[in-house]
């Protein structure tokens, strides 16, 4: 198994472990400062607004240094800051914007949350606007009081 596949598997297992730990935690141990679903939903809005800047560094700054990005319109898994910047350098010229169609937010604990669902991208191509329907998973982690994306998987819907 190559290094990228191992990192992806590790990130996925970590997200699943966090979900399992949250499900088994004692409610008396829960932090009173849990983020709300609206707090987590706002992280998507921040990401979408960053896309609108057209600046790959602005978007990449929302990802943790060790984040994993499995992007919608690339076959290459990105596992570091430079790779994430590279992806958005190629993606942002189409002036993408996304609208969430369906979302399920799971707040795991005070510092971890997952937002999973579907969204519709509008891409502005030379021949006119194009829409792409995709599934997404954002795994967020609060680090040093800042919410960062630690895992982002987006894939085009397989059925029309």
Automatic annotation (TrEMBL):
GO terms of molecular function: calcium/calmodulin-dependent protein kinase activity; calmodulin binding
Top-level taxonomic group: Bacteria
Signal peptide: 1-23
PROSITE patterns (alphabetical): PROKAR_LIPOPROTEIN
Keywords: Signal
Entries under Pfam families matching the protein: CaMKII_AD
Domain Calcium/calmodulin-dependent protein kinase II association-domain: 38-158
Full protein name: SgcJ/EcaC family oxidoreductase
Record InterPro entries: Ca/CaM-dep_prot_kinase-assoc, NTF2-like_dom_sf, Steroid_delta5-4_isomerase, UCP028470_steroid_isom-rel
């Amino acid at each position: 198994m190559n290094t990228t596949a191992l990192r992806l598997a590790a990130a996925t297992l970590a997200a699943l472990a966090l979900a399992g730990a949250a499900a088994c935690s004692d409610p008396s141990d829960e932090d009173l400062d849990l983020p709300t679903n609206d707090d987590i939903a706002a992280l998507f809005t921040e990401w979408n607004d960053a896309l609108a800047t057209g600046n790959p560094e602005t978007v990449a700054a929302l990802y943790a240094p060790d984040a994993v990005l499995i992007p919608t319109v690339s076959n290459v898994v990105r596992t570091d800051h430079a790779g994430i910047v590279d992806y958005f350098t190629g993606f942002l010229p189409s002036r993408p914007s996304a609208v969430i169609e369906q979302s399920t937010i799971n707040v795991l604990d005070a510092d971890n949350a997952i937002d999973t669902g579907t969204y519709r991208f509008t891409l502005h191509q030379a021949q006119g606007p194009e829409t792409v329907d995709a599934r997404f998973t954002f795994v967020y982690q609060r680090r040093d009081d800042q919410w960062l994306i630690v895992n982002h998987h987006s894939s085009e819907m397989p059925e029309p």
